[in-house]
Automatic annotation (TrEMBL):
Keywords: Signal. Residues 49-405 form the Serpin domain. This is Plasma serine protease inhibitor. Residues 1-18 form the signal peptide.
Length: 405
């Protein structure tokens, strides 16, 4: 077997960081009523939405769910280990120049510190860990940066006992994600030398819960010609609402208790691709700025989705290529001259019901040697739609597409 280094990530989403100061009207009023907003994550052009489009194109007709925040955090940590073109490609994909790299890491440090502050109304946990073989030398500068900038815990791990090491890592991830992400690592062997883990866990109750008595079985149109029966929640309340005529979609914001909101995006029938193509930081900013409180009769299906993505097949489409090839430069990680990333797997889960939402994500990256209207308006989400969970900073904690609840 080839010697490899396993790195586990989670999901990140700091693309719309500047949106907080653009909130107006009801959104501004609401933000004053909530807990102080967390530090805005570093801006990265349209990395989040480019990533979404790549994931959607790779799995047509399937549910998609991921944490942009975790993935971005993981890539930023990976940049700490890389040099030359490998680092430049990662930073460029994130929308950061080489001169801005230090600012990028500092921004994540502040974000992690503030996310870790206790909250009364919701649970939000984002963290990192390194599982390291004592027999392998990792540059102290890298370890120090991981501890100080990314608050990473370190654990000695005996990879000569692969099953024991796998259990140690999987148990850690399961604990930190409230048993939502289990068996993140499917296989290890005695040649593994390090696993880097990034995880995110979110749990919050709706500001106004849906009545379980109002949930009924209704048809969800998977395609124009095919429908399935799903439990559909019903809410009659004032929700944030915007009709985007440019993109031909309706956007409904359902607030959680605390500092977060779920955005449900329903394209006009036959216009899903138009909406997906138009997704950008500017688009999200416009939605949040133009939101008004509106009395709605709202129908949203209960969701339980688990999604797995092979990022080694997706990230090259966004310009991150060398790290997966013999051109990889991981000189800031170790003196070993022939290490590259062989696999990156991202797992995410979400459950949406009458009381609120629970979601979590984690990603594993494997390194190896190269030798190897007023009044009630009815809005029914009964066909494929998009879902974003944002805090009011506004970082995109999770993003997804529901093709079949």
């Amino acid at each position: 077997m080839q010697l490899c280094l396993l790195l586990c990530l989670a999901l990140l989403s700091p693309q719309v960081a500047a949106l907080r100061r653009h909130h107006s009207g009801a959104m501004k009023k609401r933000s004053k009523e909530l807990l102080p907003a967390t530090t805005e994550a570093p801006r990265e052009k349209d990395f989040v939405f480019d990533l979404y489009r790549a994931l959607a194109a790779s799995a047509p007709g399937h549910n998609i769910f991921f944490s942009p925040l975790s993935i971005s955090t993981s890539l930023a940590m990976l940049a700490l280990a890389t040099g030359s073109n490998s680092r430049a490609q990662i930073l460029q994909a994130l929308g950061v120049s080489l001169e801005e790299e230090e600012q990028l890491h500092t921004s994540f440090q502040k974000l992690l510190q503030e996310i870790r502050q206790p909250r009364d109304s919701l649970q939000l946990n984002l963290g990192n860990a390194l599982f390291i073989s004592p027999a392998v030398h990792i540059h102290e500068t890298f370890l120090n940066a991981m501890r100080t900038m990314y608050l990473a815990e370190t654990f000695p791990t005996d990879f000569k006992e692969p099953e024991v090491a796998k259990k140690q890592i999987n148990d850690f991830v399961a604990k930190e994600t409230n048993d939502n992400i289990v068996d993140l690592i499917e296989e290890l062997d005695s040649t593994n030398i390090m696993v880097m883990v990034n995880y995110i866990f979110f749990k919050a109750k709706w500001e106004s819960a849906f009545s379980r008595k109002s949930t009924t079985k209704q048809g969800f149109h998977v395609t124009p010609d095919k429908s399935v029966r799903v439990p559909m929640m019903k809410g009659e309340d004032r929700y944030y609402y915007f009709l985007d005529r440019n993109l031909s979609c309706q956007v409904v914001g359902v607030p959680y208790q605390g500092n977060a909101t779920a955005l449900f995006v329903l394209p006009v029938e036959g216009r899903m691709e138009q909406v997906e193509y138009g997704l950008s930081e500017k688009t999200l900013k416009r939605w949040l700025t133009m939101f008004i409180k509106r009395q709605l009769e709202l129908y949203i299906p209960k969701l339980s989705i688990e999604s797995t993505s092979q990022l080694v097949e997706i990230l090259p489409l966004l310009g991150i290529r060398d790290i997966f090839t013999s051109q990889a430069d991981l000189s800031r990680l170790s003196d070993h001259p022939n290490i590259q990333v062989s696999e990156m797997v991202h797992k995410a889960v979400v459950e949406v019901d009458e009381s609120g939402t629970e979601a979590a994500a984690a990603t594993a990256t494997i390194f190896m040697f190269r030798s190897a209207q007023m009044g009630f308006q009815r809005v029914v989400f009964n066909r494929p739609f998009l879902l974003f969970i944002v805090d009011n900073a506004t970082n995109i904690l999770f993003a997804g597409k529901v093709n079949r609840p």
